[in-house]
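Thread title: Can someone regenerate the structure for this chain?

I was given the following input by a collaborator and told the matching structure tokens would be attached. They weren't. Posting the sequence so someone can regenerate them.
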Amino acid sequence: MRPFGIVRVWSRAMSATILSKGSIVAVLSSCACASFTLFATAAQAQDPPPPTASGTATQATASSGSTSVVKDSFATAGTRDTKDGVAGSISAGGILSSGNSRNLAATAGGQFRYRDGIHQFSAAAAGNYGESGKTDEGVQQTVGNVQGLVRYDLFFAEHWSGFLQVGARRDRFQGLDLRLNVDPGISYYFLEEQKHRLWLEAGYDFQHDVRRTEQVDEARQADPLGDYPRTTDRHSARLFVGYDNQLNTFVTFTTGVEYLQPFDPSAAWRLTWNNALKSAISDQFSLATTFTLRYDHEPLPGVKDTDTITSVSLVYTFK
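Best answer:
Regenerated them for you:
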């Protein structure tokens, strides 16, 4: 099937939905994508995107259309591509409706990579916004988060690399003014082919949270005997497994699961799962559908333990 045929079938079948704490914004893929690109992956549309790690880095790369990039968000594993130089892409999508109801949703993200021999530097950013409501009642914001990530990789052996990444996230509906994550670790590549990759990351995670004042006040009212400081630090062990497969010339699938196990309290573990399916339209344009699930086993009172984000974006990639 030619790439345009794939896109036509896909765009009729897919719909995108952005879920935040207690609100849903529908995004139809056939009219959701408007995109330009600037940051990026180490490959054009036919090339497999670099592997990415979730959580301290949510898994899907910006070049594959991911709307999540940092912890409870996104961590990018360094690609093993030997090509030196700079590459990048950005993506965006959205929907606007009016009439009996009003609805606005927008998502955008990007990624940048620089490789020089065994050294690699990468950065990523993403943002999501949504509001909805009845025409005669006004609109309310239902989604709002921004996130960023920087990472350094040192490929010191055939199947091994060491990395240090720093991510930051701001999410109104998760009750966060800031979530800062610092993650050193080691990567091991079990399978390392140009179109087929399987790898494991293990390391340490330091997390610093600055919670929203209103969220802390609500938690204290719900549980007057509880201890809910506005700022908190957490130390965890981090484990991530990623898989990347270029199914054919035009379609690439990427997935990854990150698990964070705090040392204290041990019950407050977290899980992030990312998926991305990218279909090439041309050498530089592709259509990407991504899904991210974030689970927090011990959130603040009044905050749900599970968030999901599904999006469809048009992506432009260049080297």
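Confidence is low (pLDDT under 50) at residues 1-67, 69-80.
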